[in-house]
Amino acid sequence: MMGSRRMLFLWLVLAWGQNAAAEGFGLDALLPALAQNSGGRARFNEKKFIALLDQPVESSGELVYARPGHLEKNTFKPQPERLTLDNGTLTIEAKGQKKSVPLSDYPELAVFVESLRGTLAGDRAALERVWRLYLGGSSAHWTLLLLPSAPAMSSVISRIKITGEAAQLRSVEIQQADGDRSLMRIEPIRVEP
Amino acid sequence: MKPLPKRRRVYAILAWLGFVLACGGTVGRANFTEDMSAFLPASPTQEQRLLVSLLKDGMVARLILVGIEGTDALTRAGLSKDMAQRLRDNPDFSLISNGDAASQARDRTFLFGNRYLLSPAVGAEHFSEAGLRAALAESIEALASSAGLLLKSLLPSDPTGEMVRLLGLIDSGSAPSSLHGAWASKDGTRALLLASTRALGSDLDGQQQAVAAIRQAFSAAAETAAMDLANPREPRNKLIPFMLRQAQHERNQVFAVRPEPVEGLIQRLPSSLPRLVLTGPGVFAVAARDTIKSEAIRLSLLGSLSVFMLLLAIYRSLATVVLGLLPVASGALAGIAAVSLGFGVVHGVTLGFGATLIGEAVDYSIYLFIQSQQDSRQWANRFWPTIRLGMLTSVTGFASLLFSGFPGLAQLGLYSIAGLLTAAAVTRFVLPALRPGVFCRRDFAPFGLRLLDCIHWARRWRWLPAALSVAACVVVLWHRDSVWSHDLAALSPAPAADQALDARLRADLGAPDGGYLAIASGQDRDAALAAAETLGAALQALAAQGVIAGFTSPALFLPSAGVQQARLASLPTPDELQRRLRGAVSGLPVRADRFAPFLADVEAARRRGPLRQADWQGTSFALVVDGLLLRQHQRWLALLPLRAPVAGNPIDAVVVRQAISSSGLAGAWFVDIKAEADRLYAGYLREAMVFSLAGLLAIAVLLLAALRSVKRVARVMAPLLIAVLVVVAGLALAGQALTLLHLVGLLLTVAVGSNYALFFDRGRQEAGGKIAPRTLASLLFANIATVAGFGLLAFSKVPVLQAIGVTVAPGAVLALVFSALLADFDP
Q1: Do B29 and B242 meet the contact criterion of CB atoms below 8 Å apart?
Q2: Number of domains in chain A
Q3: Does A183 touch chain B (CB under 8 A)?
């Protein structure tokens, strides 16, 4: 049983690697492709698995992105909240209050928001400042793994896994060092031409 | 030539010596001050009294704003941390804030430890089973938000979300931003640090010591940083463990980690040397004191020297020059003595004003020396009445300053009156006694004749003063809204550039800059706090309506005893809380046994009892707590700074006042500080104008009594008034808004110019019905001496002195020219 699982895993890794190699698919191909993405809107559903709680907490809403520095996370449920990133300034609107802060003041949010923005913008330099990048899959179905390179970071987040189809992000999973994790699924809203 | 009887000469000299000794004795025991608040008004209304005491000694006056510029952001932050560490060991400072991790952690730990006393949500209802369930459900919901990852570590110890509630109440968007773990300006080019001195704002020696300590800490920190840079192995070895330590430390904080960007370590090339900038009321006051001290000495010396050289060129006799300066010296001495006796303290600016007295009082001896070519007794009969009238005119003008509410202006008035009376008396009675013969062997009659020819020639432009006055009227009317400065800051001793820097640092630090205050008061501290709580409820309603954006209250940090007791009483015993918690979690995705830290913390709060003001010492909030609670004349005041809904837009004072009055609180009121300060200043400006006009009227009455002819009075006053008008127009054209001090300068112009006009008027009695040539020469020399004395002030860095110089020097010249043009010459 165990053996066949390991075999399956091995096979998967090999297939993955072959796939990537066959298409010449790598960071050099993916990130510029992502950088072409001018922007768009998407629905998201996020589940946070927190050890303290017996069930995951769930939130949903919309993501808006405009190349290269504008990112918006509008949460509709359970509590309306709007998070806007614009050129390094984070604006938080919740419970009728609006607050703007430099991203550097909120490192935990900054990590999440910047990893997402960096991926969306294909900003390899920004990503590699904080993360080591590993890419697998094909250009149609890829998985990007971000592992922290600074020790200060690895004590909070152990990895971020981003999956996507072509130039479209489909999920972001953040694994925290304490074992908690959050999984965000992204469903693009197709705009009819 | 009949010399004075010897006995009278001896009496005169002895009396003078006695007077000088007495004055010298008084001056020797006089208190001197450079505290610029002498130029702050002694205020009439309650709001204004409070305002002035806040400006002088309040929390705001004890703040020193520190900026570090140059080099790169990481070095700046490092310098800030190093400086903060050095200064925190210094007992001169009650608080050093720079947003470093350690003090933030301390602040948060303190808030966290006292959350059940401080959170307004705490009450019996809040800790009932239903209340707990609602709060828990809300906290769990909050975990789903973007801040959820931050909040989850708080859940076991703070399931009711009091800490988040507290931070929301306290932070309210005013905290400075951070860069590399230290406060930085919004554009990131300057590291920021806030120091609060133990010394009061009015204790200039204490402030100076604090400023020196900050500079010293900066140079020491900069030196250490430079050594680290010079030895490239050092910083890496030192900084990396430091960063790790820092990260470790921050992990232990209530609010987890703050990752340090790594790239700064690699590209750590110094772009330029670090610079220190300091602002704040104390810094300005110390700088002003230094400037005033050096300027008063420098200007007095320069003024004396230039007048000395001028007189030497005219008299060509050292003895005569020295004699000529005796009235000035005696007058200055008498002026200081009079101010010391009258006010108990002499202001540095008053001393600086001594320079101006040189310009005016030296005129008297010039008149005596040049006009009395043959005999000083004949001079006494022929010219003294005119000089006396001119002197009395000046004294009348200055007397109007005595009634000013500005202590500084009243000092200037008394100084001038005593100085001029003394100088004139010494000229009249002592100088002839000291030198019975001829003062000046040179005869200036031929020179005077040539001058007279010039005037005859120039009188074809007699229409000029009238035309200029019309033009000046047009200019003044055109600029009528901007002629007078209505800004109290115009009187600030700090140069405009420093004030602008201060405003920028304040904006970046979110430091209190006044703005709007709601004030609650009570018999004692607790009554004031209870009143602040009631007032806070009214303000909360205003915030909900959007009339104000928010407010800070000392009662937030130090709830009144009643409220603290009520909150403590509402905390259940551990067993009871455990029981309710079990009930509360049913149906929620969490188990009650997760909350052991919560039970422990509630029990600890119950046992610890109420919070006192002193408990805040050592946290950044001590500044707020101490600064917003004041004791004033047996009453305690709680200050609640309000924030305008849109930054820069005014708060609707009427609505706020209405809300305060309908809250039923006695002794609560609203102050718009900027408007109040400007109103205060406008009041004094108006008052000074009224007094000046009264002085002008008094001068007219005096002249009418002496000259007994309306026409002659008009001829004397016209050139002076036109000179004043033209100076005002000139300053308006130059874009210099007039302040109270310009008004003083205009008054001085009238005082000095009245001598000229009176001598031209006196010419009617002379041979040929026009001014005597020697008199004319003496007027020109007197004018040059005046311009030399006042002209120097125009270059002063002290705005007070500069205003007087820039007004009087051109005014005196114009007064002489207009007097010459308008005099009744032709038969």
Answers
A1: no
A2: 1
A3: no
